[in-house]
Specification:
The complex is a heterotrimer. Chain A contains 10 helices and no strands. Chain A has helices spanning 30-40, 42-64, 96-132, 134-148, 152-163, 167-194, 197-205, 209-245, 257-266, 273-300. Chain B is 31% helix and 23% strand. Chain B starts with a strand and ends in an 8-residue tail after the last helix. By secondary structure, chain C is an alpha/beta fold. Chain C has a single domain (9-322), classed as P-loop containing nucleotide triphosphate hydrolases (Rossmann fold, 3-Layer(aba) Sandwich). Chain C is 32% helix and 24% strand. In chain C, α3 crosses α4 (132-145) and α5 (162-174) packs parallel to α6. Chain C starts with 8 loop residues before the first strand and ends in an 8-residue tail after the last strand. Classes of the chains: A mainly alpha, B alpha/beta, C alpha/beta.
Chain lengths: 307, 328, 330
Amino acid sequence: MSRPDQATPQPSIWPESAHSLEEAEQGHSLWQDAWHRLRKNRMAVFGGLFILVMGLASLVGPTMVTHGYQEQNLELRESPPSAEHWLGTDKLGRDLLARVLYGGRISLTVGLVATAVSLTIGLLYGTVSGFCGGKVDAVMMRLVDILYALPFTIFVILLMVFFGRDIRLMFLAIGAVEWLTMARIVRGQVLSLRKQEFIEACIALGLPLHRIILRHLAPNVLGPVIVYSTLTIPAVMLLEAFLSFLGLGVQEPMCSWGSLIKEGAEIMEEAPWLLIFPGSLFAMTLFSLNFLGDGLRDALDPRASKD
Amino acid sequence: MALLKLSDLKTFFHTRAGVVRAVNGVSFSIEKGETLGIVGESGSGKSVACYSLMGLIPKPPGKIESGQALFDGEDLLQMSEAQLNRIRGRRIAMIFQDPMTSLNPYLRIEDQLIEPLLLHGLADKHGARKKALEMLEKVGIPGAARRIRMYPHEFSGGMRQRVMIAMALITEPDLLIADEPTTALDVTVQAQILELIKSMQQQLNMAVIFISHDLGVVAGFCDRVNVMYSGQIVESGHTDAIFTHPSHPYNQALQRSIPALQAKGQELFTIEGQPPDLTRPVSGCAFAARCVHASHACSQTSPHLECVDEGHWSACLRVQQHEITLAP
Amino acid sequence: MSMPTPPFLKIRGLKTHFPVEKGLLVRKTVATVKAVDGIDLDLNQGEILGLVGESGCGKSTLGRTILQLIEPTQGSVHLNGRCLTELKGKALRESRKDFQMIFQDPYASLNPRMTVYDTLAEALLSHQSIPKSELSQRVGQWMNRVGLSPRFIKKYPHEFSGGQRQRIAIARALVVEPKLLIADEAVSALDVSIQAQIINLLARLSKEMNLTMIFISHDLSVVKHIADRIAVMYLGKMVELGSAESLFDHPRHPYTQALVSAVPIPDPSRERTRRRMLLPGDPPSPMHPPSGCSFHPRCPHAADACQAAFPKWVREGDRSIACSRLEVVP
């Protein structure tokens, strides 16, 4: 009673020729799935939009405000918010709005650049370590462990002492410390991916190493890397604020949110707006990045994909 | 009165991709001391049906839309967590497929064994410890006295499965639900475990629901068999009849697909088409799209189980109307 | 009298041992896992060998060692006269088109971020250059050949079912037109009805392409159907080798007998009345294999001689058995 077997599970009406390729159905990649999931997460969307707005404001803001960020007006110093100065002025009569926007530019740039530095170093290091395995991996990770033990603050102070207080140094210093965790995360991902059968299949096909790493390993490592990067940015910004608070950060008249908060904290009782505005803006930015990072992690979680 | 009587169970999962009708109107009963096999491929709903009984379905996204599960007169599906807890582990026990993850890796075997006894107030600590050792010996763990204080990772897969059986049966339940308990085991270990379950069942006069995709295992083990497809029971009867007089095309096709029963050198018989999409309900019989005997009426009429022979039920419209007879 | 043709696949004394190391900075080997412990095998071209055994027997490791995915500790593998174990680096990569593998898990063996086209095109281009214009046509042809509609060429692995993914994996392995194909539990993760489809596909393609295939499985009935000969492994060594049908019906090695008797038969009357040979205990760990014949602790016919040394091979017709107690084995 059985029909002559066809190994084909599909209805037998498809054309045998290649013409059917034009009617090929579009596939939905995992990235598209993740994007849909992200869009539905309201907190993440809010976070993302806020960062976008903040970023744009920091970029063009300082040039669009009526006052320059270093313009002093000693008669109006420490004045509360008014029509002339929307956010008030600081102890040297400088417009707080301009300074906050400029500070945002500095803080966000530090956040992005330092994260980019740590991402690059960490990605490379972690991939090599994870893929090579064995003794190479052991040595590379011991090095990371040793570096982890170095006290960050002292390291930065030493750098500042030897090379002077250049803002570019701060990017390097922070990036040079943050790469350690990134390397560990990447290595962990690579280790687990390496055991997956599709990587074995690549080796069995005889694909060259660089292709395996770039085309097969890297795209699948990207998920946690993206999430962690998004969460590194606020950590870096906090680090920068910490340095500025200690007086090791940006030099006058440049300002960052960290240095503004420091100044505001000093005269908190007389001019609370000098603390409240930069402080809340900073906090909002950190929250937004965290929401976005959480949202990305949920969206990119492979377990949440279609059953 | 039947030990367990399940009526018209419907368990749906409300997911992003749609409503998955995992169990779509399942009814069966089991008597004391009987062995009932539930057979089906993945997606048939066999595991979900039994998990629903035990209240183990995650409530979002799962939902028991309707149904009644009378266990000794009480409806399990209407019980509160507290009431269910009195029955679970005490009168209805369950063993699972994966022995690696079914035991708590942080607790010693002894502690896990005595837990059900203590929880249900069946013994004090001293008595429970004695019973645990007895049980471990009964399930055939060599050197039980020495090993009872060990941790799960110090046991092999087959041993862990025995420990799980000991844990399940220590309270001498009335009903054991075994969800693919031997699928993850080597075939020689599988034979040992099946013998063990059989002997324990006889000792305790326990009813067993044995869920499996392996018809061979079910053939030697069960008194009656329910064959499930796409969330419904399509055939139900005594084991011999299920194999010698299949009354549903799916059952017939499934048996024919088994390599062991087919002559070498010829192509294996295959079932055309793909397993059903549980998010898209079909009008009529869910198997019709793949059935060699399907008629026009099959995709129009909603199937239901009807008695086609003594103790033998089939949901096939054409068999019910005596339009076709199926050879094994 | 014709000269015997050399075997197409020749394996001699193949061993794969994994050292177990302990220590923080200075690593010391404290034990060795003898996953594959001395395998000799000859296969003719176009032959299908079934390799069976339970977990820990080393069959998967053997498959990967033959394919040079794991470096053997000792021994040699010759394919069509060429020694594979001596190949390294670029030479190895270039010869890989002659021997390919299909893996067990259809979900893990495909890159989730590449479409069917990406995966198959990459495989096609790995060992030959094909003009871009021809590429999609060739991919489409292969999809047809393994039973997939070319309509799905732009889809991603997660959009397919397990059986369909396995078809993609089969296509990927076969587009390079290998001579040797190793299927490592290729159907074990699939439903029974889908298994049958994939087995038919593999059997058909192997005939069409004159493939030499090693079909690794723990499922004896599947193997019996597709294989010409069957080799039974226990703890890193082969214990019996013979034609598929006769080995299953008349196993000679005590372990094979236990294995065959443990396989459930979907026939209630036979299943209930048969006499089962139950093995005591669990399979021992490959880290501490018993001395001599590694099966002797569980063998109902073991004698003192069995502990002393691994038994010599005994030939009974086309069957080879590694047992010294065959006179008492029923």
